[in-house]
# Entry
Amino acid sequence: MSEPDYYDIVRQKLTLGPLRAPPHPKIFELLKIFWDQETIKVLSYFPPVGSDISIKELAEKTGMDRKVIKKLLNNAAKKRTIAKSGNKYSLEPLVPGIFEAYFIVRADTQENLIKAAEIYRFLFKNILSPPVFDTNFTLFRPLLPTSATEKIIQVDATIQPQEQVMPYELVEDLINKRESFAVIPCQCRLIGELSGEPCEIASSDMGCLVTGPAAEIMANFGWAKLLTKEEALEYLKETEKAGLVHCASNSRGGEHLAFICNCCPCHCGALGPTKQFKINVVTPSNFRPQIDYDKCKICKTCVKKCPMEAITYSESTEPQINFNPDVCIGCGICAYNCPTDAIALVKISNKIPPKINKIGNKIFAQMLSELLS
# Structure
């Protein structure tokens, strides 16, 4: 009698809400990079993502020596391919989850890091059947650039200011509510560099901003660089000038909103598929740009900076900048970078995100915390 396919058993357990690990050859390649034959056999006795298990329970289920199990699992936890909390261990989704932690810590061999990077690049550039996540699930939403309320939002005098812009829509408000900040490399652009496809907009060093206690923890481990509040704001301005979009959890805030991803459309695992496949991983903000053609000098800065290619230049009888609202996500990068202040953001809707954006029974910050702890 042949042995069970332990890799497929584990693959099926990596589902959490809208997140999946489809039975695609690339997925199996990835699992074999993360876990050898001995480890995957132990993991096949794990409960699905969302629950944990102890070494004692595993020893009873497998009949294996506890010391052997502990060594295998601690090695996997060191690489951040499983989570460890006290004497309990758990599986986590391939993305988001293992992806971020694995490339933040980079505790695996360089050969494996490169192989895993190439596979993740493939996954981000292709929609599998079934896909690695439910295409109707919204993970992120853009936060408006720094100084948005003073510079690029068109104020309607007939509406109360608090009704025009909510705190959870502004990147600056998130900064003002925190005291600790750190920068970690962008994992999406990092895998591009590892796989020989670097981003032309920004390097991986221009990465994610971590706030609150998570910033200090990551800095203490050497995974992140601490910033003061002033340095954090200046850093965000640099990312805006480069054309990167501030993406945060699609929620109204709270302690779980600790990360600001600064995303490019070519490498980001969320913004890229949103642009390429017209799916909802990043939901549009409540704002859209409005062009003042009297101020516009047709410098084409907005055309170059727009991450979604929603702004184009037309050389018709009368050259003009054109705007396509159907693909715009209302990130404000065009308005922020306009040298003549010819673009303003206008609020066109008032879609309120959920208070907490859960992925199955977890939030993203919780998954990452479990893997990195």
Summary: The two ends are 40 Å apart (CA to CA).
